[in-house]
Amino acid sequence: MTKPNDIARYLANWQKEIDGAAITLLTGRSVWYSGFRQVIIGLAAAGLVYGIGKLIGISVAG
């Protein structure tokens, strides 16, 4: 069964891809490049926030 967190991650990544595609209108780069760049930035941001949370001892019970 699909968990709500899985659905949220899936939708968030697609939103980043759509944002990247929209950026192509301003930059002229390919849709794939800009979309992939947005996904990488989003994953890096999530990793950073996770790392800070681990560092200061915050956890989310699931």
Describe the structure.
Helices cover 81% and strands 0% of the residues. The chain is mainly alpha-helical and 62 residues long. The protein has one domain (4-51). The chain starts with a helix and ends in a 6-residue tail after the last helix. The model has no long low-confidence stretch (mean pLDDT 81).
Key phrases:
mainly alpha, single chain
Radius of gyration from the alpha-carbon trace, in angstroms: 15 Å
Count of helix runs: 2
Helix- and strand-based class? mainly alpha
Strand content: under 5%
Largest sheet: none
Tell me the distance between the termini: 16 Å
How many structural domains in the coordinates? Answer: 1
What share of the residues lie within helices?
over 70%
Compact overview of the structure:
The chain has helices at residues 4-27, 31-56.
Layout of helices and strands:
Elements: H1 4-27, H2 31-56
Helix pairs in contact: 1-2
